[in-house]
Amino acid sequence: MEEQIDIDRVEKIAFVLKTIAHPMRVGIIDLLSRNDKMSVNDITAYLGLEQSLTSHHLANLKMKGILGSKRDGKNINYYLKMKEVPEILKILEDVNVVVF
Fold it and tell me: CA-CA distance, 89 to 86, in Å (whole number)?
């Protein structure tokens, strides 16, 4: 007889995957995995996005616990709070997927 599925575990996994499932969010996570902290302006400049769009993605990632933020004078610096997420991205990057 097979074990019952752990609903809480699979829902948590799905929650993280849904949260990061956007090219700009993947870019933000990748960028913050290589930098301790960055401001909205730095992230915007690096990724070539509009500030409002960058702020939207940052707020979503922060609200869902992937990122954290800390005020530094007039700037708010974002950092990677859920340190395991870049590992997930690396595993997915190594998967040979055909995109249609």
Answer: 5
Mind giving me the DSSP string for the chain?
-PPPP-HHHHHHHHHHHHHH-SHHHHHHHHHHHSSS-EEHHHHHHHHT--HHHHHHHHHHHHHTTSEEEEEETTEEEEEESSTTHHHHHHHHHHS-----
13-39, pLDDT tens digit by residue?
A: 899 899 999 999 999 999 999 999 999
Strand partners, 68: 79
Scan for tokens 């040979």, then name that residue. Answer: 96
Give every CB contact of residue 86 below 8 A, 6+ residues apart in sequence. Answer: 29, 30, 33, 80
